[in-house]
Amino acid sequence: MIPVCHLEELPAGESVRIDTAPPIAVFNADGTLYAIDDTCTHQDASLADGWLEGCLVECPLHAASFDLRTGAATCLPARRAVRTHPVTVADGMIYVHHTAADEGTAA
């Protein structure tokens, strides 16, 4: 498990990037926490810097969109999904369970 931050440090509608290999973005979408690989599959851009609307994040470069629940690319120019990672909260701390690259897309 990778510690991210305290729950109160990630308000609804916000995201945080954690420097893992590869980087992971953690989002608070209206009180539900999601973690996905941080790099857009279309072009190198941080999804943590994108725009969050509901359970979708829009890439800041070319407006590709990803579903935080599944990692699926929901519009062009991205065609490939990003990996998702399980998130838990224990004693007020957010943790991401990093999944290996060969374990598939959905976590």
Overview of the structural elements:
- The strands form three sheets. This protein has a four-stranded antiparallel sheet with strand order 2-3-4-9, with no helix packed on it. A four-stranded antiparallel sheet has the order 5-6-7-8, with no helix packed on it. Strands 1-11-10 form a three-stranded antiparallel sheet, with no helix packed on it.
- Helix content is 0%, strand content 40%.
- It contains no helices and eleven strands.
- The protein has 107 residues and is mainly beta.
- The protein has one domain (2-103): Rieske Iron-sulfur Protein.
- The model is unreliable at 102-107 (pLDDT under 50).
Question: What's the quick description here?
Answer:
The chain is built from no helices and 11 strands.
Shape: globular
User: Level of helix content?
Assistant: under 10%
Q: Based on DSSP secondary structure assignment, what is the total number of beta strands?
A: 11
Report how far apart the termini are.
14 Å
Mean pLDDT: 92
Remind me, CATH topology?
Rieske Iron-sulfur Protein
Radius of gyration: 13 Å
Largest sheet: 4 strands, antiparallel
* CATH homologous superfamily assignment: Rieske [2Fe-2S] iron-sulphur domain
The second-level CATH architecture is 3-layer Sandwich
Quickly count the helices: 0
Strand content: 35-45%
What's the structural domain tally?
Answer: 1
User: Which regions contain 5 or more consecutive residues with pLDDT less than 50?
Assistant: 102-107
In what order do the strands lie side by side in the largest sheet? 2-3-4-9
- CATH class category: Mainly Beta
**Broad structural category:** mainly beta
Order of helix and strand elements from N to C terminus: EEEEEEEEEEE
